[in-house]
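pasting for the record
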Amino acid sequence: MRLLEAIVDANHRALAGDERAGLRPADFAGSLPVVVLTCFDPRLHALMPEVLGVPERDFLWLTNAGAVVTGPQSETARAVALACAVEGGREVVVLGHTDCRLFAPDRREAVARFRQNGADLGAAATALDDFLRPLFNERLSVATAVGHLRASPFLPLAIPVHGLIVDTDTGRLDWVVNGYGVSSPPARQAPLPPAGAGLP
């Protein structure tokens, strides 16, 4: 059994009442540390990294709004890749969660909330559509994020990229994408632009 499969298995057994359930990180030293991208929702603070059973020294936690990755060369994709390159991350998990307040938002409501906070978006309000589109539901967003990371030229193909959902009420983990099951890599993006040209 591989690292993430063992994590999910231990999680399910623990929730079923198995008092002996747990992860022995020493058995998976070759797959640690693990890089985990989650939403910045504060409810996750009490769940991470305990829900994965990974000690803090082997857990690289990145957060943003909704654990969204907007593209293979996005800022978030670069941050995940840097966590692997600089900190030695050997596996990547995009971890969505239930009841995320960022999902299925109404565009008019979102604009109204920006205004309540003192930001008048004006014509830029139409750009919200591009941001909100991937937020149709948590599972779709996690699968999309995994796809973007897997296609990123910054991330080596040897690093598995997984997608999971955690139930914020129970702590249960469920698969969205098992990164070990990817039989062939997706097509890589076009070469990077020349230095100074800027990245999206």
